[in-house]
Write a structure and sequence with these properties.
heterodimer; A: alpha+beta; five-stranded mixed β-sheet; 6% strand; flat; B: alpha/beta; seven-stranded mixed β-sheet; three-stranded parallel β-sheet; 12 helices
Chain lengths: 777, 339
């Protein structure tokens, strides 16, 4: 026994025992986690079934109560508006159904949530409501009944009217005729006057006539009573009907009593007549004020209608409280359901937390076992053991193998120690031999390494050569690139030159136009100079001759002649002077134009416009001597001076007036001698200047051909021209636009095709801040 | 009236109708009651979907039916009444065939004053729109001659209570009495007048129902004049009368020819003429326009003329007299007979 106990104690320290213990612990944790899980699911399930078993049916029942009580609430108005008994029946069935359903829903509620205050109130209200509805229903069916009866009554009244008319109308007619004439039947002779024209017959006539009137009155009263809608109005009608009925009865009685007093042959007929009258008249009275008579029916019907009205009002009140109570019920049920759902959610949450905790605990426990037992007890010692074994294998046999404990590892360590002792012995014997062998081996290895190194060196040299080759290639590529660069620069310079040439060409073209004009203009004054100088010469010759013929003596006449001639001479010379001056001016202008200064100077805009307009005109005339133009000026005397480049600005006006000349000339050629608005067309240019606060506006307007919008769009584009090839450069307005822009101004065009063109140049008084404008802008 | 229309329709249907269209007559009895006339007219238009309404009998009944027909724009043709309101030019769906009561009464007054030199004329009429229409006709005819009725008697409709009226008439000591009423009260009045010794000329209008009147009067009917708006129905010397007699014989051999069925026949013929004029495209507008725009609608010599403001086709009035044998014969003057 003791031995067995000690053996057990021994085994306690063995690894297998400890492994079993560890696995047992892990299983225990898993079991605990499962238990907790089961517990939580159970709780959640319980909460859910509470929701299912109690809250949901309660909610459903509450909604049912709401729905069916709603049907009951609207039932009463539906009942009162039912038009036929069938409809009433259908509505009534609906109500019964809704009521039954309501009761069923209430029962469910009673079982579920007990009988609360709200519940009792609903029950009470619903009961009252259904009583009320049943009352309305029964009254409504009574009304239908009454309606049917009064319908019958009205039909009967109609028949009665016909019956009474059939008897009374001829009776009155016959009685009057008899009383007046004595004739009673066709084929019967006239009776004696005392017979027919008697007091008795007159009375009879009166009774019959009365009956007719009263019966009509009674019928009329009955008929109109049907359209009465309130009980109080019925009473006076009934009153009048009663008096009519009284008079009918009196007349009838009187007729009967007089008939019985008649002579026999009359008596029979007249009694029959009265007897024929009595039933319909009696029926009429009965229909009116008899038992179940019309008035009573009507009164009952009206009373029922009033009672219905009250019941309906009452119904409304009950409905309001019922609806409020049902609302309370529904919201209570709703609250209960929400609470149950909340409990279920809480249970689920608790379960989740518990599960999480136990899982964490399990994982922690497992980790602890692994760390404590496997890590510390088993693995670390095994590692130590294997370390020793590795060191031994490497030849380190000096370390003593020693490890604590009494388990399988300790056994292995003991075995290893034995092995070490043996190995130490063998090692000592083999050591010397081993060292010699090793030396030889190492030597061989060193030699082979030297050979390898030499090979690598050769490879490196080859690589250096390759690199040098690549370098040369790169240099040649760089040279090529700089060549391309030069080419590009050259092209740019060429482009700039071409542009300058174009600008130059335009200037030359303008100059050409000018020169032509000036040349022509110079010819004329020069002719004058020439002619008058010739004439002056001749006159001088004449003067000489006169002086030679007469000697030195001069008569008075001769003296006078000499004076005349000298007068003429001086006047001619004067003209020569003036025309020379004119020629000078033109030449001057031309020179100014050609010189092309770009100095800003104060310029009088009015005179600039005037001057260049004339130049343009003369240019045009130079080309075509037939050309004529009327220049009308409206120059603002306050225009004043403007700081500008006069030559540039002049070119603008020259160009514009030149265009005007061209446009008007074109129009003149097209029109020929045709009339425009009754007058012959006359090319005209209007020049006007206007000084505003901060600018000067120049308008150049012509009555030429004008321009269509597609042309207006393009006129400032360089090389755009409408003139025939060779006549225009297309640069005039493009340059003008540049010039005006350089002056900070704007050009506006106003034109109407076939009518006019107006160029408006606005120049600011303040010169713009000088900005470097690219030439090709 | 119905018999005549059906005879005309039967006649044309036997020949294959008009362009293949056959004529059918739908009818309801209104018992001469205006309320029933309203219901019947609505039924004919809404349920039976008739093309046109034809031969409405009576003045008050026509008065009820015309607004409904006008509302639905259904042609309302040849009503059996001469009332003036139907000749109003405001209607564009009504075409009358016969002469008006005004023309009949004018003829009576004309004959009385011209043939017999009578100047004391009394009027008895039924107390409704028919009677009043006739009464106005007599009154205007008399006023044109600077006269007025010497006495007036009226009786309630649908009764024979005419004795009060007779008393009233006697007050004027008339030489002639023109009566606008139904055959029973008219007959009753004549009998009582003759019985009480009021021996005057009795004249009445076509609407009275000539054959029924003669039957009611028996031998006392001799000398009563009735104006007619159609030719004498047995005088087959007229083409139209011969055609009527043939059609009636073919349709209903057992029927006796009469003024009313003759008028019905002419009404039927008028409807047929309207459909014929439309050709293939028959519409209500075309039907009415065809008849209105025709110069003359010739029914075998019985000529009807309509115009812009004239929706009445015939202006003819024919005078007839009840002979000693209780049958009618045509007369042209009151004097021929007296001789």
């Amino acid at each position: 026994m003791k031995a067995r106990l000690s053996s057990l104690l021994e085994r306690r320290n063995r690894i297998s025992t400890q492994l079993y213990l560890a696995i047992g612990g892990a299983v225990a944790f898993t079991l605990a986690a499962s238990l907790v899980g089961w517990f939580s699911f159970n709780r959640v399930g319980e909460a859910q079934s509470r929701v299912n078993d109690s809250s949901v049916p309660e909610l459903v029942a509450a909604f049912g109560v709401a729905q069916h009580s709603g049907t009951l609430v609207v039932a009463a108005p539906r009942l009162t508006t039912a038009a036929t008994p069938d409809e009433l029946q259908a509505v009534s069935e609906d109500i019964t159904e809704a009521h039954d359903a309501l009761q069923a829903a209430m029962q469910v509620l009673g079982q579920q949530g007990g009988r609360g205050e709200v519940f009792n109130r609903i029950q009470a209200d619903a009961d009252t409501l259904i009583l009320n509805i049943r009352a309305i229903e029964s009254e409504k069916s009574q009304i239908f009944d009454l309606n049917a009866r009064s319908g019958e009554l009205r039909t009967e009244l109609g028949d009665l009217r016909t019956r009474l008319d059939d008897i009374l109308v001829p009776a009155v007619d016959d009685q009057l005729f008899y009383t007046m004439t004595g004739y009673r039947y066709l084929g019967q002779s006239q009776e004696g006057r005392e017979e027919y024209f008697s007091e008795q017959e007159l009375w009879r006539y009166r009774r019959l006539a009365d009956l007719h009137v009263e019966a009509s009155e009674a019928l009329h009263l009955m008929e109109s009573a049907f359209s009465v809608s309130e009980t109080p109005h019925l009473e006076p009608m009934k009153e009048r009907f009663e008096s009519s009925a009284g008079r009918i009865e009196r007349s009838l009685a009187s007729l009967r009593s007089s008939a019985t007093r008649e002579e026999e042959h009359l008596q029979l007929g007249r009694l029959a007549e009265v007897r024929g009258l009595a039933p319909p008249l009696g029926r009429l009275i009965e229909l009116g004020i008899g038992e179940e008579g019309g008035f009573e029916l009507l009164e009952r019907e009206l009373r029922l209608v009033e009672s219905q009205r009250e019941l309906l009002a009452n119904n409304r009140d009950i409905s309001v409280t019922l609806v409020a109570a049902v609302d309370g019920l529904v919201s209570q049920a709703h609250a209960n359901a929400q609470a149950a759902t909340l409990a279920s959610t809480e249970a689920a949450l608790t379960g989740r937390i518990l599960l999480l905790a136990i899982t964490a605990l399990s994982i922690g426990g497992a980790l602890l076992i692994a760390w404590l037992f496997v890590g510390r007890v088993l693995l670390r010692r095994l590692e130590m053991l294997s370390d020793w074994m590795r060191r031994m294998a490497k030849g380190d046999l000096e370390v003593q193998v020693e490890i604590g404990g009494r388990d399988e590892v300790a056994d292995m360590a003991a075995a290893l120690e034995v092995f070490r002792q043996h190995a130490l012995e063998v090692q000592r014997l083999n050591l010397v031999e081993l060292l010699a062998e090793q030396l030889e081996e190492k030597n061989g290895e060193l030699e082979s390494l030297a050979g390898e190194l030499q090979g690598k060196n050769g490879e490196l040299e080859n690589l250096a050569e390759e690199l040098q080759g690549k370098n040369v290639e790169l240099e040649s590529l760089a040279g090529e690139l700089s060549g391309k660069n030069d080419e590009l620069e050259n092209t740019l310079a060429d482009l700039n030159r071409a542009q300058d040439q174009i600008v130059m060409r335009e200037k030359l073209a303008a100059l050409g136009e000018l020169t032509a004009g000036v040349a022509h203009e110079i010819r004329n004054p020069l002719n004058f100079v020439k002619n008058f100088s010739e004439v002056s010469n001749e006159l001088l010759v004449e003067l000489k001759e006169v002086l030679e013929e007469e000697g030195v003596t001069l008569s008075d006449d001769q003296r006078g002649l000499v004076e005349d001639i000298s007068g003429d001479l001086s006047s001619n010379l004067e003209r020569i002077g003036s025309h020379t001056a004119r020629a000078n001016r033109i030449v001057h202008d031309m020179l100014m134009m050609g010189r092309g200064s770009s100095e800003r100077a104060p310029v009088n805009v009015n005179s600039l416009v005037d001057e260049y307009a004339r130049l343009a005109y003369h240019s045009a005339r130079a080309v075509d001597t037939e050309f004529q133009l009327d220049i009308k000026q409206d120059l603002d005397p306050n225009t004043g001076e403007l700081d500008a480049i006069p030559q540039d600005l002049g070119r603008v006006f020259l160009n514009m007036v030149g265009n005007a000349c061209y446009a008007t000339d074109e129009k003149r050629r097209t029109l020929g001698d045709a009339q425009v608005n009754g007058d012959r067309y006359w090319p005209t240019v209007w020049l006007s200047t206007q000084r505003t606060e901060d600018s000067i506006i120049v308008r150049i307007r012509d009555n030429g051909n004008g321009m269509p919008p597609e042309v207006v769009e393009k006129i400032f584009n360089p090389f755009f021209t409408t003139k025939p090839t060779g006549q225009g450069t297309g640069l005039g307005l493009a340059l003008s636009s540049d010039i005006v822009r350089e002056h900070g101004g704007t050009i506006t065009v106003d034109t109407q095709p076939g009518e006019y063109t107006e160029m408006i140049v606005e120049l600011p008084l303040e010169p713009p801040v000088q900005v470097a404008v690219p030439v090709n802008d | 009236m119905r018999l005549g229309i059906e005879a005309a329709f039967h006649e044309v249907n036997e020949e294959g109708g008009v362009n293949g269209r056959l004529f059918a007559l739908r009818y309801f009895d209104d018992a001469y009651e205006p309320e029933a006339a309203i219901v019947n007219t609505q039924r004919l238009i809404e349920e039976e979907k008739v093309f046109a309404l034809i031969g409405e009998v009576g003045t008050p009944t026509s008065r009820s039916a015309t607004p409904i027909a006008a509302e639905a724009n259904v042609p309302f043709i040849a009503p059996f009444t001469g009332a003036e309101f139907l000749r109003d030019k405001k209607w564009n769906n009504i075409l009358n065939m016969r002469s008006s009561y005004y023309q009949e009464t004018e003829e009576m007054v004309d004959r009385l004053t011209n043939d017999l030199w009578v100047n004391r004329i009394a009027v008895m009429y039924q107390d409704d729109s028919y009677g009043r229409a006739g009464y106005r006709g007599v009154k205007f005819a008399l006023e044109r001659r600077q006269m007025e009725p010497v006495s007036i008697g009226l009786y309630p409709r649908n009764t024979t209570a005419v004795k009060t009226a007779l008393l009233d008439l006697m007050q004027g000591e008339p030489q002639a009495v023109i009566m606008i009423g139904a055959y029973e009260p008219v007959a009753s009045l004549i009998l009582w007048a003759r019985h009480t010794g009021l021996d005057v000329v009795f004249m009445t209008v076509s609407f009275v129902g000539s054959n029924a009147l003669a039957g009611e009067l028996g031998p006392d009917g001799e000398g009563v004049y009735v104006t007619q708006v159609v030719p004498f129905p047995t005088d087959d010397s007229r083409a139209v009368t011969a055609a009527y007699l043939d059609a009636l014989e073919a349709y209903s051999p057992e029927s006796t020819p009469g003024f009313v069925s003759f008028e019905g026949y002419l009404a039927g013929r008028l409807a047929i003429a309207g459909v014929e004029g439309c050709g293939q495209e028959v519409s209500r507008a075309c039907f009415l326009d065809t008849l209105r725009q025709a110069d003359v609608v010739d029914l075998d010599g019985f000529q009807l003329r309509y115009g812009e403001d004239d929706n009445q086709g015939s202006d003819q009035v024919f005078l007839t007299r009840i002979g000693p044998d209780g049958t009618y014969y045509p007369v042209t003057s009151l004097l021929d007979v007296r001789r």
